[in-house]
Structures are given as C-alpha cells and as structure tokens.
Design a protein that fits this description.
about 15% strand, Spore Coat Polysaccharide Biosynthesis Protein SpsA, Chain A, MetI-like fold, 18 helices, about 50% helix, nine-stranded mixed β-sheet, alpha/beta
Amino acid sequence: MSELPVAIVTPSYNTGRYVGATVRSVLEQGYAPLDYLVMDGGSTDETVEVLKSFGARVRWVSERDKGQSDAINRGFGQTRGEVLGWLNSDDTYAPGALRAAAEFLAAHPDVAMVYGDADFIDASGQRIGRCQHVEPVFNPHRLLHYSDFIVQPAAFFRRSAFEAVGGLDPSLNWAMDYDLWLKFAAAGFKVAYLPRALANYRWLLTREPFLTWMFNSLFLASTHTVLVVTLSSLGGFALAKYKFPGRRVLMVIMLATMMLPAQVLLPSSYELMFRIGWIDSYAAIVVPSAVSVFGMFLFMQAMRGVPDELLQAGRVDGCSELRLWWEIALPVIRPMIGAYTLLSFMGSWNSFVWPQIVLQNQDHFTLPIAMTNMIGLPEYEAPLGGIMAGTLLSILPIAILFFILQKDFIAGLTSGAVKG
C-alpha cells in the first residue's frame, strides 16, 4: 500500500514557550511523504528564534495575517499533500499519529476524515489524562445539537473534502474547526473514528487567557459604572430640581421604555451596531448602556431630598449648575451613589446575553462569556478544577467592591425606610 502524502500546518503567534515541542512532535513522526509549514502571525516573542533553530528541517513564514483561519487556509495552499491536518503551536502529536491516520485513510478510500483520541497535557508537557468526550461513532445530529465531540489536533481529512467545502471560514477566530466538521457533515462526507491517541491537547490555564478575560470584565464594568452613575445622577438632578415644559410627558415616555423587554430590542440593536461598525468592539456594550432610565428615576427620588435652599444659596454665591450638582447635591445623596454603583457594577460584570452577541474575538471576551463557553465545550467535562478557579476569580471583584461600599449600600437601600 502506497503512503499518502500528508501536509501539516501550524498557526502560531507568540507561543515561543511551546512551539518548539510542537515542531519536534511533527518532525519525530518519522513519516517520509510529509510537507510541514509553520504560519507565524508576526510574533514578537522568541517564536521566530525557536523556528530558526530547526534550520532547514522546518519551513516557516512569519508575517501579519488576518487571523488563525486565514493563516491555516493560506498554509494549506502553500503545501502539497492529500491528507491535511493543523496542529496549534501549543499542542503536540502522539508518536506515530501521522502514519496511523494516513494508513487508515489509504485503507478506507470512502472516508473523508478520521479522528482519534487525545490526551490532556500541562504546561510542562506532562500527561494529565485522557479526553473523555470523544465519541466513537460520528453522529451529525449529536455534533450539531449536543456539542463538538472531536478534538481538533486529533483530526485529519482529505484535501479534496477540505476544498469542496471551501476550507475554513476566515471570519471565524473561534470554533472554526467545529464549523468545518459541520460543513463536512452537511456535504455528506463520511467521517470515521480511529481508536487510538493521536494528539496531546494543552490544558486550560496554559492556553486560555484568564487574566485577559478578567481585565476585559474589569474594564467594561468600571467604564459602564462610571458612565451610568454620572449620567443617571445628572438626569435625576435635572428631573428633580428643574421645571421645564414637557417634563411630565418626557417622564411618561421614559417610563414607557422600561416596559419593553430588553430581548425585544436585541435584533434592532444588533442591526444598528452592525451598520455603525461596532460589532466585536466594546463601544457596542458601553455606549448603549451608558444611559439608564431606572437610574435616573432612582436618583430623581434621592435628589428630591436635597434642600432647595442649599441650591439657591449656591446660586447666590455664583455656583454654576454643574458645580451645584457636583459639590452640593452629590455629597448629600452619597448613600444612593454607593448603592447604585454596586448595583451597576454587578449588573455589568454579570452581563452575558448582549456581550455574547456582539463580541466575536476570544481576546475580547469577558469572564461570563468565557466561562460559559468552557462549560459548554465537552473537552472541559473531566477537569472541572479550572472552571471552579475561574468562577472564584469572577466572584472576587464584586465581593471586594461590596466590602468597600457596604456602608453606603445599606444606607442607600434603607434611606426611605424610616420617616422623620
């Protein structure tokens, strides 16, 4: 039986710590008809130096690309081989994986893709355990409606099938492999399971940017809280202390908007963000939520407790209206500010539906989105410790903020409970 030529592409970006092990796992396969190419996205760490250390044994390109999917598509276009696979720059192949996959496809010409088992490895490359979610029977219905039960580095497919479905979707930087499996299934290609370990998948904290996700959540929650507290207190001050034509009509309209379920506005809001060009940007999250009708009415009630005599005295002394709001009104309603700050921060920190809709790049994800996606991915079913650690991280900022603002929070909630 003749050996099928294999082409492997490794997309990489700033993974100098692991890319050496990845490349060695390919070179040590001992499979002769192999075309291997590393597509680096212009790394700024030691990745390029590591690649240079392999000399002529490895062909590589280092230049800016349009994302991982684009790099893989272009890499396959620059290689020759009937059997294709891509290996991320922090994963590795098991010994003999390429030969096992190529021989299986050669013996089963009707099979377009073969996938096998995979082991989890830690940062040092030590085995953690076997990935438990891989299913031995390829069921397109379960793939679509349950979850992705195929570990990407343990999958190999024919070039003809890859080209027939148009390759990877270049607009996807997340779950592009899952999209490819679904396209294979939709096209009617036969997919088979090979009962042996083909790859090693580096686990969780060594590949998932928890600190980035936490920083994203802190940035969005803090920015939203500052904006919504500032604008709500300004609006509440105006509604409580100024009499102007149409004030009651305006308040009725504002109350009417609160009766609309937020879910009803999601399609039109998404279309608006798309037309503006804010999809996958934080502006789509911060700007629409910067104004809160609920917050304005809350502050309006609090501002009514500010004596008009204080404001009039300030005007006599030459204070501007903004200075009256800042130096006289806000100190009086400090307990309400503390309570609303905590409520706003907590609401933004836990926000999921709208950020999940508009954020597409994994590097832009917040902790709620990232943790939910991890729970939904079956490769995280066995090792739950990392998910618990991430959950603890997501709770800490709110707990710390509560301890800082608890006095104002309790005072703000009970400010109207006692008369006199």
